[in-house]
Amino acid sequence: MENNFSVILAKKRLKVSDVHKGTGLSKTALTNLYYERTGNPDMKTLLKIATFLKISIDELLTPDRDV
Fold it and tell me: Which intervals of the chain form a coiled coil (predicted)?
């Protein structure tokens, strides 16, 4: 899966700290997702982020193009 979290934050001119404040998720978890250090993020985490950003989970994570 391709992680679009950093791209979406840039387009919306938001920081990880903004998402942290809006969702209550830990900065560590959000930073790991931002820098793609998280291999398999929890579905509840993705749902909270997607809801906060007003996007779908499909927009947040897209299938790899090489597969």
Answer: none
**Residue range 23-33, pLDDT digits in tens:** 999 999 999 99
Note the helical H segments in 1-67: 5-12, 16-23, 27-34, 43-53, 57-60
Phi, psi of 33 (to 5 degrees): -65, -40
Q: How far apart are CA 65 and CA 54, in angstroms?
A: 24
Fold of domain 2-55: 434 Repressor (Amino-terminal Domain) (1.10.260)
Q: Return d(Cα 47, Cα 57) in angstroms, integer.
A: 7
Indicate the length of the chain as a whole number.
67
